[in-house]
Amino acid sequence: MGNTPARPSTSAEDYVKVIYDLQERGTGPVTISGMAERLSVSNSSVSGMLRKLNELGFVEHQRYGNVSLTETGTKAALAVLRRHRLLETYLVAELGYSWDEVHDEAEILEHVVSDKFVDRIAAHLGDPVVDPHGDPIPTREGSIVERESVLLSEAEAGTSGVVVRVNDTDPELLRYLADIDIGIGMRVEVVERLPFAGSLQLSVHPEKGGQTRDQVLGLVAAEALWLSPEE
């Protein structure tokens, strides 16, 4: 097999992926409690695993400090994310899954499929650069096409742009967004921020020349959506 490094254990892959995801979503430094919440485990479990990942050279973490990935850890995370996001894309494009069903399925499959299998999927799908939720798909070499985007929850009144990405970790939220017909590719304008009501007043422009409509969206849902802002 040449000098390909051995794949990390399933739990190590889950941890580096979550650290990368929390870093990428940019809602502040990565902490033990933030990781514990995302992984639904105790703080002490996270601490124990971080010690192992530290020894393996995947993370940098001083006691009581923030957590960050090393270059090795980042490479490992991108490899898992490539498998995860290509599997999600395949399940939607070829097997008729809806976007709220694929995350949990891909969580299981990402640890068992070979890189060869994933590369075949990528070739079959025409090497997509984003998955059905707009998440960027890393290349085999571990590079990512970055797009300028802003979290909808942080967008000022008057900001308009196209929805380019949706956080896929909460299936109920994805079903809610589908119910109120907000998805990738739609133009959205922030008409007014209603912080005391915990919501945003939006104007939503459908893709295919439908009627523009007003929509009130809670800040929790707005924290899961990214806009590519228009000048």
Automatic annotation (TrEMBL):
Signal peptide: none
Keyword set includes Lipoprotein: no
Residue stretches making up the HTH dtxR-type domain: 1-70
Xref: Gene3D superfamilies: 2.30.30.90, Iron dependent repressor, metal binding and dimerisation domain (1.10.60.10), Winged helix-like DNA-binding domain superfamily/Winged helix DNA-binding domain (1.10.10.10)
Domain of life of the source: Bacteria
Any Pfam family hit: Fe_dep_repr_C
InterPro entries, per database record: DtxR_MntR_Metal-Reg, Fe-transptr_FeoA-like, Fe_dep_repressor, Fe_dep_repressor_sf, FeoA_core_dom, HTH_DTXR, Iron_dep_repressor, WH-like_DNA-bd_sf
Entry's Gene Ontology BP terms: negative regulation of DNA-templated transcription
Compartment annotation: Cytoplasm
GO molecular function terms attached to this record: DNA binding; DNA-binding transcription factor activity; protein dimerization activity; transition metal ion binding
Keywords: Activator, Cytoplasm, DNA-binding, Manganese, Repressor, Transcription, Transcription regulation
Protein family according to the UniProt entry: Belongs to the DtxR/MntR family.
Annotated protein name in UniProt: Manganese transport regulator
Taxonomic source organism: Nocardiopsis metallicus
